[in-house]
Design brief:
Shape: globular
Distance between the termini: 32 Å
Number of strands: 2
Structural class: mainly alpha
Number of domains: 1
Oligomer: single chain
Strand order of the largest sheet: 1-2
Strand content: under 5%
């Protein structure tokens, strides 16, 4: 069996991965399609099934979710603009998937370039707005859309892009790992944060030992939908970072 053979029926009409089976005619099956589609891409790479066409289709889908350059919506342009505010989880999972493409030996230069370009657009939007990502009313400040309030958000993106990170943002990045939430989302979002960053040191290794003692990262993907095929192919441990 392969992930691709098992995942038929787990997509919605917009091409986003659905948490539930049988929503293929539904244009809006989930509010977290970016996160779920990102986790599916990571699972494809882990299963050794990711090919150029998979990177192309994923990147096109994510690019179609940009309401403005670097400002992500919950669904592709022209299909649905969700009425509530996007939070950090879809962004962090997306960074993790883009890092997967950049690191993959199976991706081409064009895939790596498009992945980095998307991260750069997200970063540029953050610099322009003070890391406010208001996908409901672009340009307007709200606390919920201010993703810069999360101390891990900006440095995760800076590490992923290979930028220098000042010590005070490094401190926030590592403190968030050491004090991560032990909810299901807390575990998997911290995993995505570390994976996206490419950082490998005693703090990230400590987290990896912790999550492995809980059954590995795959244990926290689609936790409420244990029959989801992505769970069976998602990596348990953190892939070792590669240079790009």
């Amino acid at each position: 069996m392969t992930l691709k053979s098992e995942e038929v029926g787990w997509f919605d009409a917009s091409g986003m991965v659905s948490p539930e089976f049988g929503h293929t005619d539904d244009k809006w099956s989930s509010g977290n399609g970016i996160r779920y589609s990102s986790e599916r891409l990571i699972a494809l790479e882990s299963a050794g099934e990711a090919e150029g066409v998979d990177f192309d289709s994923f990147l096109t889908l994510m690019e179609n979710c940009e309401r403005q350059p670097g400002l992500m919506m919950r669904g592709p342009t022209g299909i649905h603009i969700h009425g509530d505010q996007q939070s950090f989880d879809d962004y962090i999972a997306l960074f993790s998937a883009l890092r997967t493409i950049i690191d993959s030996p199976n991706s081409g230069i064009k895939h790596k370039t498009r992945s980095r370009d998307l991260m750069m657009r997200i970063y540029a939007h953050g610099l322009k707005t003070g890391f406010v990502y208001n996908n409901v009313d672009p340009g307007k400040f709200t606390v919920h859309s201010w993703l810069g309030r999360f101390q891990f958000f900006r440095p995760t993106l800076e590490y992923a892009l290979g930028f220098g990170v000042p010590w005070w943002r490094q401190a926030g990045f590592y403190f968030s790992i050491l004090t991560h939430s032990t909810t299901d989302d807390g575990w998997i979002m911290t995993w995505h944060q570390i994976h996206a960053s490419g950082v490998d040191n005693w703090i990230t290794q400590r987290f990896e030992r912790e999550i492995m003692s809980q059954g590995g990262a795959a244990e926290f993907v689609f936790r409420g939908h244990k029959e989801h095929p992505v769970r069976a192919w998602f990596p348990f441990a953190l892939p070792k970072p590669r240079t790009f």
